[in-house]
Amino acid sequence: MIEITGLTKYHGGRAAIQDVSFAVRPGRVTGFLGPNGAGKSSTLRILLGLDRADAGSALIGGRPYRELRDPLRTVGSLLEGSGAHRSRTARAHLGWVAHSNGIPKRRVGEVLEQVGLADAAGRRVGGFSLGMGQRLGMAAALLGEPAVLVLDEPVNGLDPDGIRWIRRLLREYAADGRTVLLSSHLMSEMAETADDLVVISAGRVIAAGPLAEVTAGHASLEEAFFALTDAASGR
For residue 135, which of 150, 106, 114 has the smallest C-alpha distance? Predict the structure, then answer.
């Protein structure tokens, strides 16, 4: 379970996020939705130990990320692409990640097959398309067979078949009792994939709950989203 409580972060005297609180439960896909600059990335970076909060806490299984004994076996994440060096092959990149985290080498071939990159395993990452880079990032996230997935815009650059694959993967992951936190600006995908929603605007959570509850009284998730964000900004 992910528990975020009173999370606050300042950048240059301005609050990037302020008193952000929500929970992500096992067995559910939780969508994290907000306009650009709303605070989604700041929240995820703190959750994954890439930045420090000025106040509040972000816990995974009751612990901050930095205190996890085997982080890659606990949390798989995708932020800002694959993170692979352009001169490395897909297989070499995943092999290094597996070795540095004590993950069996066999997992490299398994995840390359799982994300549809088995035929590109020997190609250098610098020649990958945006969609292939996203698939490689997903392979790294899945490498440790983690109980938690934290994904930022995972369908970015994917073709329709890839988007359908991601959707199915996340639904199966949650159905297996694991925890999924999905940040995206694609509301059609959120409506198809998420069980629960957290909506953030101007650094504050403005709605949280089951998808049906957040969208109640509106014709679509898009309509609900704009009504919520307009109300939060005073428009």
Answer: 114
pTM comes to 0.92
- Which pLDDT band, with edges at 50, 70 and 90, does 23 fall under? very high
Return the pLDDT at 108.
97
Residue 99: what pLDDT? Answer: 93
Joined tokens for residue 38: 């709303």
- For residue 13, the model assigns a pLDDT of 84
Residue 55 sits at the vertex; the CA angle it makes with 54 and 57, to the nearest 5 degrees, is 120
| Closest CA relative to residue 93, chosen from 112, 79, 113 | 112
The per-residue pLDDT for range 191-232, each reduced to its tens digit, is: 989 999 999 999 999 999 999 999 999 999 999 999 998 888
Taking the C-alpha atoms of residue 161 and residue 201, their distance in angstroms, rounded to an integer, is 31
Q: How far is Cα 40 from Cα 202, in angstroms, rounded to an integer?
A: 10
Q: Which of 164, 163, 149, 140 is nearest to 82 (CA)?
A: 140
> What phi, psi does 22 have (nearest 5°)?
-170, 165
Cα–Cα dist 166/83, whole Å: 19
CB 74 within 8 A of CB 147: yes
Token digits for 199? 């909506």
Is the CB of residue 158 less than 8 Å from the CB of residue 81? no
Nearest to 211 by CA among 230, 226, 192: 192
At which residue do the structure tokens 């985290």 appear? Answer: 101
* Domains along the sequence of the chain with CATH: 2-80+146-233 (3.40.50.300)
The rounded radius of gyration (Å) of the Cα atoms in the chain is 18
Over range 134-143, report the average pLDDT: 94
